[in-house]
Design goal:
Distance between the termini: 84 Å
Strand order of the largest sheet: 2-1-5-4-3
Number of helices: 13
Helix content: 40-55%
CATH class of one domain: Alpha Beta
Oligomer: single chain
Structural class: alpha+beta
Order of helices and strands: HHEEHEEEHHHHHHEHEEHEEHHEE
CATH architecture of one domain: 2-Layer Sandwich
Length: 467
């Protein structure tokens, strides 16, 4: 492209320069010739009054010398020969004498001017002024050289400017092409600096926006895979507990092995969604980008989600209470009687409850008690889950996605992102039961004008049978 732009500039500028240069050169030559002929005619006309007064050769020579053209100015007297070296053809001279006609025309070697002068006694003298060819072209070559130099400078300057502009366009295009190839090979961090003409700058801005949006979409997809896989661990825990109740039966070992294989597969899926795989640049690009820390939970971006936190917590705790009874875990549930509507869907809250209670079953010994509370404050709803286990030694590390020791690290991350989606937060401490005390704060949803009054959850405590 750069060479093409320079070639176009060269062709166009050359045609424009030639279209002006050729007529201008002819005009300069014509003007120089015209000036030489006019000067010769003026000198002949200046000598005519002197010839009308006297025909003395000495006086005429002195007058011709005063006109700075004595070598080309000749006077033809009627009674004597010419005064000076004549170059006029005989036919032209005879024509000027007889017809008394002023003659100015080109002859071989230059230009001839003949001016007849009528003397007393009806005699005719002729003043001859010859202009050599060198006088007719004096300064023409120099003028042509100057014009040619200017034309070459104009053409060269236009080609240089076109080359610089072309270089800028080519550089911007190559940068955009390299970034596109890098993005196609999986480098999602590739960005370009918009440069060049406005169209290419707009293309660079659009490319950066596309790459940023692609990174966001891939991060959301990756989180969705990990979160959905983590949700499957809730029924998996139920199966694991059921297999423990089958201990000693012929089917126990087979069920336990199947549950273990299923859990291993889920761990592999979560790890694949979190960690780049060595399957080529594209797979690394798809799996190697960390999502933003404030990414909303699954379903939080839907149009107008809304749910009653207390109702969802009651249903999910009832599910876990059955499993707690099988492991002799004391389970208490305390729900507020006030409305607890937040801007999340039921599945999101259920995922939070399952993640927090599931962690208790996975990381504490059977018989460890736990409690679940839902508290309504002025501007928020607090979900509190605590247990009597060893607790979480490093809360800050536990809140970092994927860095918890001995697990996938997604349970707490699901809860934290759900809270962040509503403008809330999560806190980890040590509770009255002696173990972990996790408080997830959700901002209250704005009141719905046409919504029904939500059902008021009643405070209830449940304990496993036999305890």
């Amino acid at each position: 492209m750069r060479r093409s732009l320079a070639g176009v500039a060269l062709a166009v500028t050359s045609m424009v320069a030639l279209s002006f240069l050729i007529p201008l050169a002819a005009l300069v030559m014509s003007l120089v010739k015209e000036q030489g002929v006019t000067a010769a005619q003026q000198r002949a006309a200046a000598l005519a009054p002197v010839l009308a007064l006297t025909t003395d050769p000495a006086a005429l020579q002195e007058s011709a010398a005063s006109l700075d053209a004595s070598e080309h100015l000749v006077v033809h007297l009627p009674d004597s020969g010419p005064i000076g070296s004549s170059k006029a053809p005989a036919n032209l001279l005879e024509r000027a004498q007889q017809a008394r006609e002023s003659i100015s025309q080109a002859i071989p070697g230059g230009w001839m001017c003949l001016q007849p002068v009528v003397l007393p006694g009806d005699r005719v003298a002729v003043i001859e002024n010859f202009v050599p060819e060198a006088e007719l072209t004096r300064g023409v070559k120099e003028s042509w050289a100057v014009m040619a130099f200017l034309a070459v400078g104009l053409v060269g300057g236009s080609v240089l400017v076109a080359d610089r502009l072309g270089a800028k366009v080519v550089r911007s295009s190559k940068t955009l092409a390299r970034a596109s190839r890098a993005l196609g090979q999986g480098d999602l961090d590739t960005r370009v600096e918009p440069m060049g003409p406005r169209e290419l700058r707009d293309a660079g801005v659009a490319f950066n926006a596309m790459a940023h949006r692609m990174t966001e979409l891939l991060a959301v997809e990756r989180e969705l895979v990990a979160d959905l896989s983590h949700r499957l661990r809730t029924p998996l825990t139920a199966l694991h507990l059921a297999s423990e109740r089958m201990a000693g039966t012929p089917e126990s070992a087979r069920v336990e092995a199947a549950v273990g294989e299923l859990e291993a597969e889920l761990r592999a899926i979560i790890a694949a969604a979190r960690t780049p795989l060595a399957v080529g640049p594209m797979a690394q690009g798809l799996l190697g980008t960390e999502p933003p820390a404030d990414r909303p939970a699954v379903g939080a971006g839907a149009a107008g989600p809304r749910c009653e936190t207390a109702d969802v917590v009651r249903r999910r705790t009832a599910f876990w209470a059955v499993l707690a009874e099988q492991q002799n875990r004391a389970c208490s549930l305390d729900l507020t009687q006030e409305p607890t509507a937040i801007a999340l869907c039921d599945d999101d809250i259920a995922a939070v409850v399952d993640a927090l209670i599931g962690n208790i079953f996975r990381h504490t010994a059977p018989g460890t008690p736990f409690a679940v509370r839902v508290v309504r404050t002025a501007q928020a709803v607090e979900l509190v889950v605590e247990d009597g286990g060893p607790g979480i030694p490093d809360p800050d590390r536990a809140l970092s996605r994927g860095s918890s020791t001995g697990s996938t690290g997604l349970g707490l991350d699901i809860a934290q992102r759900a809270a962040s989606a509503t403008g809330g937060s999560m806190h980890i401490g040590r509770g009255p039961l002696g173990g972990a005390h996790i408080t997830v704060t959700f901002a209250l949803a704005p009141p719905a004008p046409s919504a029904r009054r939500p059902r008021i959850s009643r405070r209830r405590r449940s304990r496993p049978r036999g305890r």
